[in-house]
Specification:
Elements (H helix, E strand, L loop, with lengths): L11 H15 L11 H8 L3 H13 L3 E4 L3 E4 L27 H11 L4 E2 L7 H4 L9 H9 L7 H14 L9 E4 L2 H11 L6 E6 L7 H5 L3 E6 L8 H11 L1 E6 L13 H14 L3 E4 L16 H4 L4 E6 L1 H4 L6 E4 L2 H13 L6 H12 L3 H28 L3 E2 L8 E6 L11 H5 L2 E2 L1 E2 L9 E5 L5 H20 L1
Parallel strand pairs: 3-13, 5-6, 5-7, 7-8, 8-9
Antiparallel strand pairs: 1-2, 4-10, 9-10, 11-12, 12-15, 14-15
Helix pairs in contact: 1-3, 2-3, 7-15, 8-14, 16-18
Pfam family, one: GntR
Protein name: GntR family transcriptional regulator
Keywords: Aminotransferase, DNA-binding, Pyridoxal phosphate, Transcription, Transcription regulation, Transferase
């Protein structure tokens, strides 16, 4: 819930009372929900703590709120008049379901919606680069003809194009029955949770990892355990072995090339060691490879995990990194029986695929200019990365930050050398100074780190970024 004190001529405590009552009436606050601590809420609303205390006292006297010794202030679950005969919706919102966004994410989303500040949070290409990608011409006759031949596992022509690309990229023969077309990588992960996992099952992920941000695992009741990721991109396999036996881990989900958020790429020796351990444990791997199409242009020659172990790796790819997040096309490469089962589940859920993005993807993969476009795109990303490196060098030399340049992708993982452990609320200093970044705690890592996505930065904005970052570091150090 986003807390904001309404404007008006009434005293602040009355405006806050009205805001809370209205939030209850519209369902933004629910019976049984805990309110923020008085000190925290006062800081959020820029009012005195006595104002918040007076508000709470008044609502407690009305029976709307209750105080519990040692655990704070809560919305009363009993019948207190504001929502007569209301259902206790809080009982439906268990901890294993999709949680409310953190206060940081709520504030970030407001700024993104208002287009305020430098957008360093969204790892997407800017419209200027996307506009140069080759897109096919199509007629209604083409659409209707393709739709008539659409299988539940995806358009046959798109699967044929992917078969050609994946055969080279995965260094193996891939048959079309092993390819499931999805509406982006997240649908592939969702189908895996629905078809191959059950509530209460455990999975392992890299730590840090963007998998911590995907609410679909929590929504499915899947338990997530982190395996520490080293600076060279390798995993702590001793921890993985321990987690496997301690929690009966069913899958490990990894993003070994241009890892999100760190940008590192797992070396070949580490990939082979991971494959060997997982084969020993009979632990299947889900490999997320969103930058596959860029790897040749970026001169990343290390083979995917799927190429090293075709039988025990489920491989997920996407075109969203090239066509933007709104053209959701991805794919899952798996044994044919797995593809058929997950396609059947999707059909039962009535979440089939639109033919339009599949036609776009088919045309894009078949375009003879695609290689040229990818090379140009990689060159532009390289220029942005190198400019940012030059601008950040003084801060690095002053030991205020440290980072490693990603070989591929457009995420920079900055370690902030602050003499104390930052709390989630500390990171709001970046938002207040117009830097829309993602802190490490959102990726399951309680260290002083932020992810900066530089794909959308212009040269002028990069200069502003470093100026604002310098200011933020000073404020955090002085706090």
């Amino acid at each position: 819930m986003h807390w904001q004190l309404p404007t008006g001529s009434q005293p602040a405590y009355l405006r806050l009372i009205n805001f809370i009552r209205h939030s209850l009436e519209i369902g933004a606050l629910l019976p049984g929900q805990q309110l923020p601590p008085e000190r925290q809420l006062a800081a959020t609303l820029a009012v005195s703590r006595s104002t918040v205390r007076r508000t709470f006292d008044e609502l407690v006297s009305q029976g709307i709120l209750v105080r519990k010794v040692g655990s704070g202030t809560w919305v009363n679950t009993e019948k207190w008049g504001v929502l007569p005969n209301s259902i206790n919706w809080q009982s439906y919102l268990t901890a294993d379901r999709l949680a409310d966004p953190t206060q940081y994410m709520a504030q970030l989303q407001v700024l993104l919606d208002q287009k305020k500040g430098l957008n360093l949070a969204q790892a997407t290409l800017p419209a200027a680069l996307l506009a140069k990608s080759p897109l096919p011409a199509m007629t209604w006759q083409t659409v209707l003809t393709q739709e008539a031949h659409l299988a539940i596992s995806g358009a046959p022509k798109l699967k044929k194009q992917l078969q050609l690309f994946l055969g080279q990229h995965l260094r193996q023969n891939v048959v079309t029955s092993q390819i499931l077309i999805t509406s982006g990588a997240q649908q592939a992960f969702f189908l895996i949770t629905q078809g191959l996992l059950a509530a209460g099952d455990a999975i392992a992920v890299e730590q840090p990892s963007y998998f911590y941000q995907l609410g679909l695992f929590q929504a499915a009741g899947i338990r997530i355990f982190g395996v520490p990721l080293r600076s060279d991109g390798s995993l702590d396999l001793a921890v993985l072995r321990q987690l496997y036996y301690q929690h009966h881990v069913r899958f490990i989900f990894v993003n070994p090339t241009g890892q999100n958020p760190t940008g590192c790429t797992m070396p070949l020796s580490a990939r082979q060691a991971l494959i060997q351990l997982c084969a020993e444990l009979k632990l299947p791997i889900v490999e997320d490879d969103p930058l596959a199409l860029l790897q040749r242009a970026a001169n990343v020659l290390v083979p995917p995990l799927k190429a090293l172990d075709p039988e025990n790796v489920l491989y997920v790819g996407t075109l969203s990194t090239l066509t933007g997040p709104n053209t959701r096309i991805g794919w899952l490469v798996a044994p044919s029986q797995i593809v058929q089962r997950l396609a059947d589940i999707r059909q039962q859920l009535d979440s089939g695929l639109s033919i339009f993005p599949q036609l776009v993807a088919t045309g894009l993969l078949a375009d003879p200019d695609l290689t040229v476009y990818l090379q140009q795109l990689q060159q532009q990303l390289k220029q942005k990365k190198e400019q940012l490196q030059r601008l950040l060098l003084p801060l690095q030399q002053q030991h205020k930050i440290s980072f490693q340049l990603p070989q591929i992708g457009y995420n920079l993982w900055l370690k902030l050398h602050i003499g104390r452990q930052l709390t989630p609320s500390d990171y709001t200093v970046f938002l207040k100074n117009g830097l829309l970044v993602l802190p490490g705690f959102l990726f399951g890592l309680q260290e002083n780190t932020i992810r900066v996505s530089f794909a959308q930065l212009t040269p002028e904005q990069a200069v502003v970024l470093v100026q604002r970052l310098t200011k933020c570091l000073t404020l955090l150090a002085d706090d």
